[in-house]
Amino acid sequence: MKVQKNGRVARFRPVGRQFGFVVLLMALAGCGGGQSALNTAGREAASIALLFWVMLCGAVVLWLLVNGAFYYVSRIAPGRLDTRHARSVLIGGGIVLPVVVLTALLAWGLSILPDPRRPGDGLVVRVTGEQWWWRVEYWPEGAETPIVTANEIRLPAGQRTEFRLAADEVIHSFWIPALGGKMDMFPGRETMISLAPERPGVYRGQCAEFCGASHAWMAFAAVVMPPEAFDDWLAAEAADAVPPTDEAALRGQEVFLSEGCGACHTVRGTEAVGTVGPDLTHIGSRRTLGAGRSTVTLENLGTWITHTEALKPEVRMPSYALSEGDLADLTQYLKGLK
Amino acid sequence: MTVRETGLPRPEGPYPPTEAMLAEPVPEDVAKAQAERLRAAWAPPTGWRYWTAVNNTKVGKWYCLTALVFMLLAGVMALIIRLQLAVPENDLVSADRFNQLFTMHGSAMMFLFAVPMFEAISILLLPGLLGARDMPFPRLSAFGYWCFLIGGVFVIGSIFFDAAPRAGWFMYPPLATKDDGPGSDIWLLGLSFIEIASIAAAVELIVGSLKCRPPGMRVNIMPLYAWYVLVVGGMILFAFPPLIAGDFLFELERSFDWPFFDPERGGDPMLWQHLFWIFGHPEVYIVFLPSIAIAAMIVPTVARRPIFGYSWIVLSAVGTGFLSFGLWVHHMFTTGLPSISLGFFSAASEAVVIPTGIQIFAFLATLMAGRVKMTLPMLWISGALAIFTMGGLTGVMLALAPFDFQAHDTYFIVAHLHYTLFGGMVFPVIAGVYYFYPFFRKKLMSERLGRWAFWLIFTGFNLCFLPMHLTGLWGMPRRIYTYPTGLGWDGLNLISTLGAFVVAAGFAIFVWDLIRPKGGQPQIPRNPWDAGTLEWTHDVPEEVWGVRSIPHVTTRYPLWDQPGMQGRMDAGGFYLPDAREGKREILITSVIDAEPVQVQRVSGPTWITHLAAGFTGGAFIFPTFHWYPPAIACGVLAICCIIWWLWTSTARPPETDIKDVGLDLKLPTYAAGPASTGWWAMWITMLGDATAFASLIFGFFFYWTASPDFPPEGAVHAASGLIGLAAVGFAATWALTVGGRRLNRVQAVGAARACLAFAPLMAAGGASALIGSVWPLEPSAHVYPAVLWALAIWVAAHCGVGGIMQLYCLAGSLFGKLTPRYDADIWNVSLYWHFVTIAALVTCAVLGLAPGAL
């Protein structure tokens, strides 16, 4: 599944441009794909990436100094140094150098420490880590009830969004590298993180705390949108499911309800009101299926329903043995839930 | 003071020896007869009885080889992990199998390799470095080894039955507590068993460094390795108990559903994280410091000059030890702690760079000031430096909370930790193997194979782990069994996998070089590296006695600075050149100045340690499968074995009070109280025990501060009347024990026996009252009753052990093992009761006062 092709060096955060050599390094290293902490699209991620590049340069210099000195004394000039000089090596290298470097680094590093509890500009997103998917609720300012969805997080660019995190059974960790650092999600305890995305695009988030068999397949798409587009999208997301119109999709809805899918899944506007599994009201418009497992195509939907366990070990949803016709109808219905 | 009170003699005769005394030659026929008796006394058993040996040279060797085998197995697991990750969406192993593999890889490397390897090497080397014949408690080392072997085979063997733990080596609840199958129990009980053996070894190593040094070797001239042993031993003593306390709570939750980590019933998974990392971070330095210690032995030899900045290094090692206990929160930066904590622990984590840097720069200064001779061990040390400094520098990055927010739980961490552990442990240990191999095998390893192994491991390591920094920054989390293509991770992972196999090839060469038959090879000359420390005084070909006579040491590098010492040692011209009664004896010296104070008998070959280890193993292993009756039976049998072992071979009244140890010096043969090694061992053990208890109390207050419903509305509290009664019982049993000791000392044997007979009754009464006070509480309902129950059980179990000890002393008094003159046992038992009484009274206070204060 590809959320985004490799975003190469072409796109840079302007903050990086202040440092010519840093840009060169980035060009050499490449900045990775849609899940890279160096391919930044948010304020927190950008300042951390800058911190990293500066620390990297410092580390390379220090490494060369220490190992160069070692190579010099052991291979090139194994001579004698008097005690006074030996003492200055010990004190200079062991005390003065680290004290100066670390004090400076701490002062700067802690000054850019992102405050996870910093209030947002209004939108609150509540995310709950489930086994192994993400329950997502949008609480726009003043909302009484949330707009519920799953496995995809959309955010307005240029605004700070507050995340309130929890978990159902075990500890997970919420992480969108392109936007900022991670925050663990606990059962029975609420944690927070606030992120300020700046560059629209599609990024990938993934659970970072080991959470069991399918830890590897607990991902999601993080879509940063221009604010107006986001508002439109949120309004559409709040609406009930679009009733199916064509024959196949209507039959698919029948299959959906008769197979008991509604016991676990909600499709708003129908009898399906289960809350055990992800909300499917707008599954057809999502970028990924099965919490980042694959893209939402008819074929992938069919494979998912019939081979759930193989795609996602120990997943709670059973694999269904449906007739080919029923399966085709069902996938048609789901794909149509835009 | 105690020596005089007991009426036991004090050392008599001239000390320190004069030059004239040392110049006196030993008649050849006397020396020959002495050498024969000494050889006979220390000879390890042969044939099938070989395995009953307790000599540190034998036990240390088995210990090292066993740890090596576990390391290789864990390494094979790493290769399977790398193969699985070589390409995206690979299905070589299932997710479940992968999770078992990485859990076991980490657990085995930490608990079955890194820590035991330090203890194994130290058991093997320390007596040599100190010119001692053996460790102070040889049977304890053997017991520790057999426990380690049984526990290690049990834990690592589970992977072959698809039943291995699979929740990560950190076992975070609720994932690990809710996990089905025996995996988590195998981890908890199997590793707790090994941890207890580790603590036993640490106690012995500490006592060995403090009390078994050669005469004259003041603390400020002892080899740096011994300093590191002290520091690391101390760290083990304070770091492992919090984990054992955590394991205790965890297993109570697993077995009996007591909700310590279950948030629905007031528990908190964060408590485990704190306890685990209070252990887990010092653990990193427990692994790292011994390797620095090896470097501290190799560097002066290579530089052909004394180490530069000896006291700087000692202070830094101690400083590192202290600081390492204040850093654990940096493993929890992303758990939503307040910014003030993040800032504090970031700064503390950076601060540890300073003592580490001092140690490295002291070595560098030594090399600069000396004339370096590049040897194979030094090549491995330089590899270690190159790799470790890199791990250290990424550590500086990670200590900054903001960067850790991104890098935490990614492959960047995997790279970082392997750089620190390979550079800070594996490379120095291999350097140590090449350096010390001639010491324990009297042969050299191959220079050519050694260089091949070095370059393969060095190149392969960097090929494997350098790209992982980038893999992590590009977003790959740890512990995922596979990954989709298209995120830029594919090529990097493939390179890492190739590198892992290059490392494996290097290890194959190294291990072959280590174990290949060397029969055709000549023995080494004595002291092949021209080193300055005592281990190189050992005879070639090897003699079982270690040193022919124990020298008087006045310098840090006696072989360089005390010419003629070697000859006098060989001639039997120093201390303990004889074993007149054919018994194994070691010299005990004072803690600071190393003045000879006692000659101590140590125990010889035995099967009792095997039985004791086997039954102790049963007591830990059967509960894994919830087979409690055989577990209890094993526990009882283990206690019986240990009592038999102690009764027959420790603190027996000697046939003579004082004996000649050479150079006209006469030393007492028996010591009680602070003069004896046993008392020190008890003190040190109880410090560890008190740390575990403190961790439980920490748990209580953690719930109190962190959770709003502790205790919950309308909770039933412990019955305060019974708690008061319990406190009286504990105070009484303590008073009776201490009183018994005093009465016994003043010849009031009958009264002392009466005290010792009543003391266990009071202990039992106190424990029963305490259990009775929590009896109405339902521990599975909420964490509040559960934690009260856990404290009560902890105290009651200690009372049980203490009661057995009191009865042991009573029996000793009745059967002539414990007399007014020879009363070491009761000194140790009253020391035990000092600690337990404090714990018991604190528990009473917490249980009794909590309802009013909360």
Notes on the protein architecture:
The complex is a heterodimer of chains A (338) and B (854). Chain A starts with 13 loop residues before the first helix and ends with a helix. Chain A contains 9 helices and 10 strands. Chain A has 2 domains: 8-79 and 114-229, Cupredoxins -  blue copper proteins (Immunoglobulin-like, Sandwich); 247-335, Immunoglobulin-like (Sandwich). Chain A has 338 residues and is an alpha+beta fold. Chain B folds into 3 domains: 59-515, Cytochrome c oxidase-like, subunit I domain (Cytochrome C Oxidase, Chain A, Up-down Bundle); 604-643; 708-853, Four Helix Bundle (Hemerythrin (Met), subunit A) (Up-down Bundle). Chain B is 65% helix and 2% strand. Chain B has helices at residues 2-5, 19-23, 28-42, 56-85, 95-129, 138-157, 175-178, 183-211, 224-256, 269-303, 310-323, 339-351, 353-369, 376-399, 401-407, 411-441, 447-473, 490-515, 558-561, 565-570, 608-621, 628-649, 677-706, 720-745, 749-774, 783-814, 824-853; strands at residues 585-589, 596-601, 658-660, 666-668. Chain B has a two-stranded antiparallel ribbon. In chain B, helix 10 packs parallel to helix 13 (353-369). Chain B is globular. Classes of the chains: A alpha+beta (338), B mainly alpha (854). Chain A: Belongs to the cytochrome c oxidase subunit 2 family. Chain A: It comes from Roseovarius pacificus. Chain A: Residues 120-236 form the Cytochrome oxidase subunit II copper A binding domain. Chain A: It is a multi-pass membrane protein.
